[in-house]
Design a protein that fits this description.
Pfam families: 2-Hacid_dh_C (PF02826)
Number of strands: 12
Number of helices: 9
Keywords: NAD, Oxidoreductase
Largest sheet: 7 strands, parallel
Strand content: 15-25%
Bound molecules: NADPH dihydro-nicotinamide-adenine-dinucleotide phosphate
Radius of gyration: 21 Å
Protein name: 2-hydroxyacid dehydrogenase
Organism: Acidimangrovimonas pyrenivorans
Helix content: 25-40%
InterPro entries: D-isomer_DH_CS, D-isomer_DH_NAD-bd, NAD(P)-bd_dom_sf
Length: 312
């Protein structure tokens, strides 16, 4: 009997994923019947899922052994009361690479004050200020998970003094690791650039509120590819207008797409990017999905299973 895998991640993604998933299942030696058509729920062994996909009620999938999310973030599914099956999030090496490139690029943009020259090709020779070198520019990464660690390491390799902050204590070579509330105060003090790579949970929502923004040094820059609600939008706008925060580069928002009338679009100290920091890539993500199906069939623990109580 083949293993029944239901691709419920939305019709738009099916053309992108069908061939890579089939190839990955074959590579893993799995006999899989893969379908994106609404199946007999009782016959489904695994569900490949993405928010805004094809399922909101998981109750009928009584025999399903695992729900395999295509996204790294699970805030849109983790609280679903009908989901009693194990839930795995996506850790995709290519997604991580893309995030490292996006974060490094935007940190370097601010570090080098690239805009001053790139946006002003006007005949004025602005040689007043040479940028400091990276080792003089402390960067803090909030979140030391798959993405935060990779970005922190890449920035440390460029000589930025990197501080990382997480819920539980960590040791990561080349990164000063802090945790807990006291650790956050220390991580923010002195950070000239702050990168947010936390999941959205009850414990991280509005983490960057007025008080924490005020704890950053004057002129600090925020780079947020994590999730929009990690920051209190009004507090950020007030801190930007007061000149306390120098710039915010935001990839994620409370409402996406960011409404055209939102003040972030027109704000001279805000850069909006449309949730493109990084994306799950079908070929490598399919191999992760196949490995988890293999594990499920072999009775081995899943990779990247979400702790439902923790929320990530
Ligand atoms: P992980 O689950 O691997 O890491 C999460 C990190 O956040 C961990 O270090 C964890 O601490 C820390 N954390 C969680 N809650 C708290 C808290 N209350 N206080 C302090 N630290 C906390 O996630 P990833 O690195 O894979 O992804 C991070 C997020 O990036 C995703 O959830 C998603 O929102 C976002 N993302 C954005 C994309 C984009 O294109 N913009 C693309 C992909 C992801 P601990 O280690 O102690 O558990």
């Amino acid at each position: 009997m083949p293993i029944n895998v239901y691709f419920a991640a939305g019709a738009a993604r099916w053309p992108q994923y069908e061939a890579p998933l089939k190839a990955a299942f074959a590579e893993a030696g799995l006999d899989v019947a893969l379908s994106n058509a609404a199946p007999d729920p009782a016959a489904v062994d695994y569900i490949v899922f993405a928010p805004n996909g094809d399922i909101s009620d998981f109750t009928p999938f009584a025999g399903c052994k695992g729900v395999l999310n295509l996204w790294a973030g699970v805030e849109q599914i983790v609280g679903n009361q009908t989901l009693t099956q194990p839930l795995c999030r996506m850790v995709d090496p290519a997604l991580t690479e893309g995030m490292v490139e996006w974060v490094t690029g935007h940190v370097l943009r601010h570090h080098l004050n690239t805009d001053l020259h790139v946006l002003n090709q006007d005949g004025v020779w602005r040689n007043g200020a040479v940028p400091p070198i990276a080792r003089e520019r402390p960067v803090t990464v909030l979140g030391l998970g798959e993405l935060g660690r990779a970005c922190g390491r890449a920035l440390a390799a460029l000589n930025f003094p990197v501080t990382g902050w997480s819920r539980t204590a960590k040791e990561v070579e080349g990164i000063r690791c802090l945790s807990g509330e006291d650790g956050l105060t220390e991580a923010l003090a002195g950070a000239q650039i702050v990168v947010l790579l936390l999941p959205l949970t009850a414990g991280t929502e509005n983490l960057m509120n007025a008080e924490r923004l005020a704890a950053l040094p004057e002129g600090a820059v925020i780079v947020n590819p994590g999730r929009g609600p990690l920051i209190d939008d009004d507090a950020l706008l007030a801190a930007l207008d007061a000149g306390h925060i120098g710039h915010a580069t935001l990839d994620v928002f409370r409402t996406e797409p960011l409404p055209a009338a939102h003040p972030f679009w027109a704000h001279p100290k805000v850069t909006v990017t449309p949730h493109i920091a990084s994306e799950t890539r079908a070929p490598s993500a399919s191999r992760v999905i196949a490995e988890n199906v293999r594990r499920g069939e072999a009775g081995e623990p899943f990779l990247y299973e979400v702790d439902r109580a923790r929320g990530y």
